[in-house]
Each structure stands twice: as C-alpha cells, then as structure tokens.
C-alpha cells in the first residue's frame, strides 16, 4: 500500500476512498457529544466551514435518532461547509462515486432517511479533487446533509455481443454497491452526456432510477438490474446502432423487485416507431416476464427508453418509492420474417440461444 517509504502509486480503483466511512478516529479521539467550537479534524479529509462528525444514536433535529447505514460515524455539513480529498485515478478513465446521504430531519419520503447515490466523471488528470459541498442555506445549521460511505469504482464498458445492439444490456456493469446496504443505489440525471454510472445507459430525466442487486431484490438476470422508481420522471435510455428501414425486435425482462411494491406495475417502452406500455403479469412462479416489441428503425441510431407508467410506493409504509424492474434488454435485426420471429418468441426465454442463432443465420 505504499507505506514502505517508496513512492508507490495507490490508485483509487474500487471500494471506499480513504476514510470514506469516517470511522478513522482523529488524532485526539472522536469529539464528545457536546459540539466543540474548534474545527473538527477528519483523517484523510480537508474540511472547510462547519463540518461535524456525528454518531449513530445521536439525537438530531426533530428528536429523531440518527441511524448510520454502516458503522457508527458520518459527517454533517453545515451551510457552505465542505469536505474534500484528492483521488489518484487514471487519466482518461471513467469513474463512479457512490455515497450515502441523509437530510436532517430525515425526510420520511426517502427510504429510512438515507439514500445511496452514484455519479460519474471522466478523469481529465491523474489527480482529481473529490469535493462534497453543502450549497443549501438552512435557517437551522443542524439541518445540513449527513454523508457517509463514499466509495469509488472505475467503470468498464463491456464489449458488445454480436447478437445484441444494446451495450450493458443486463446492467451488470455499474457503480460500486456495498454488499450489506439494502437500498440499492439511486442514479440521478447524468451530469453530462458522455459519462454515466451505468455504462451505455443514460438517466435523461430529472428524477433518479434505482440500481438494484440480487442480494436484496429480485433481479431477472445476473446480479444487477434497474428499478424505475420515479414514474414518468425517471427515464433510462440508450441509443443503439440500427440500419434505417429494417425491422428489429426489442425484448426485455419486466419484473417485480420483491420489495413490497404495490401493484399495478407497468413500463412504457420506446423503440424506433413504437411506444407501448406493458403491465407486469408474470406466471405465478416467476418474478418477471419477457416482453417483446417489433419496430422499424428510422435511422442509423435508434433510441430505446423505459419509464414507469405509475408512481408506485411500498405497501408497508405507503411512502417509499418503488416501481417495475427492467433487465436483459436486447435489440436485434429481425430480418423480414416478422411473423416467424413472433412465433419463436412465444416459446419463451429458454429458446433464446436457438432464436439468436437462427436470426443471425438469416442475416448472413
Ligand atoms: Ca441483470
């Protein structure tokens, strides 16, 4: 780890940044419950303004007891306060930063007051500052945001398979997720079009979608999927390569995350000249169904996009946002034999491999 006196580069590539969970004790110990007047020392971080280390179990505004997602400590940023540290990265690579944030008093509309988020950036230098600033001006300085669990992951864009025009079709490539955090990660609107915490995909609306894992949610394929939690305001999309005037087939898994989300669940799917909504009506033994849409491409690139038709909430608290799950998105050239493709799709996902080989051979 470069502690032997040599100048060994330690790249931040995956996992917590230095003291990203704020559990490292300052040199003179953690401050006592009484708020000290002096600046708080937080190992590995540079602080500006009123930054406090808070502890799980502390009383926060409104008499609520603070619960920290992992470990015992987190930081609260007062008005205009800031924490920063320098990350060592690889110039030209894209990274996602995952962090948990809560507002005090906890907003009951949010899940348990805490939500993990992820944003992405392309490294323009080998050293980049990571800065969290509270730009809010609260009347009560105790109402500043609390931040915890800051992690980084270098993003890799997967190779595109020959039989599918969709990049990262199963959402398996994405931001860092903590194994024991059960809330998924919210992906807000992309800061710029070029980078996304979900390689290949864009969150192009003003509300977030949730990236979920199979440890805590029902996921149709692999270990990751996307839950559309913000109705029409949470849109994921991708531009896929197509040939104009050719017939294509879009298929995707439409599922229930098994997170007590109140039905009905439905997605609106867009592909080329098609825009249709699909209700979740699976077989009794499954948490998802496979939906297919035939469309004609109009250009060299075709936008495929999904949003939730409804604004769903969980049945247990009637306030936490949830929604339909989308996974395993595929687009392929379906030649001219539209009817034959439809018949084969009716046989279900077990025949995927067969179907794809068949379509490719038509293409030849
Ligand atoms: Ca998946």
Automatic annotation (TrEMBL):
Main location: secreted
Residues of the DUF642 domain: 15-153, 188-331
Entries under InterPro entries matching the protein: DGR2-like_dom, Galactose-bd-like_sf, Pectin_Meth_Modulator
SUPFAM superfamilies, sorted: Galactose-binding domain-like
Listed transmembrane segments: 341-362
Coiled coil regions, renumbered to chain: none
Database matches in Pfam families: DUF642
Keywords recorded for this protein, A-Z: Cell wall, Glycoprotein, Membrane, Secreted, Signal, Transmembrane, Transmembrane helix
One GO cellular component term noted in the UniProt record for this chain: plasma membrane
Cellular location(s): Secreted, Cell wall
Record-given protein name: Prefoldin subunit
């Amino acid at each position: 780890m470069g502690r032997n006196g040599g100048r060994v580069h330690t790249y931040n590539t995956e996992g917590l940044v230095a003291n990203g969970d704020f559990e490292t004790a300052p040199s003179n110990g953690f401050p006592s419950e009484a708020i000290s007047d002096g600046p708080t020392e937080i190992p590995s971080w540079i602080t500006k303004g009123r930054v406090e280390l808070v502890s799980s179990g502390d009383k926060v505004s409104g008499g609520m007891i603070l619960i920290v997602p992992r470990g015992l400590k987190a930081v609260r940023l007062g008005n205009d306060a800031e924490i920063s540290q320098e990350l060592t990265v690889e110039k030209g690579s894209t990274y996602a930063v995952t962090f948990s944030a809560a507002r005090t008093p906890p907003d009951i509309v949010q899940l348990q007051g805490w939500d993990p988020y992820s944003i992405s950036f392309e490294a323009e230098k080998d050293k980049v500052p990571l800065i969290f600033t509270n730009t809010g001006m609260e009347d009560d300085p105790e109402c500043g945001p609390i931040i915890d669990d800051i992690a980084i992951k270098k993003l890799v864009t997967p190779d595109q398979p020959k039989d599918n025009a969709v990049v990262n079709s199963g959402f398996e490539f994405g931001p860092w997720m903590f194994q024991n955090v059960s809330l998924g990660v919210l992906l807000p609107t992309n800061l710029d079009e070029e980078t996304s915490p979900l390689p290949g995909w864009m969150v192009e609306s003003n509300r977030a979608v949730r990236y979920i894992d199979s440890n805590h949610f029902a996921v149709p394929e692999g270990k990751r999927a996307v839950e559309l939690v913000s109705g029409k305001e949470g849109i994921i999309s991708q531009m896929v390569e197509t040939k104009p005037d050719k017939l294509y087939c879009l298929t995707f898994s439409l599922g229930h995350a098994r997170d007590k989300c109140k039905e009905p669940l439905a997605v609106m799917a867009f592909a080329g000249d098609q825009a249709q909504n699909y209700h979740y009506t699976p077989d009794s033994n499954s948490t998802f169904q496979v939906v297919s849409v035939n469309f004609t491409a109009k250009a060299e690139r075709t936008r495929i996009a999904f949003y939730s038709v409804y604004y769903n909430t969980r049945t247990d608290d009637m306030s936490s946002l949830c929604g339909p799950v989308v996974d395993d998105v595929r687009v392929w050239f379906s030649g001219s034999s539209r009817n034959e493709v439809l018949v084969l799709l009716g046989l279900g996902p077990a025949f995927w491999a067969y179907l794809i080989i068949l379509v490719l051979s038509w293409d030849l």
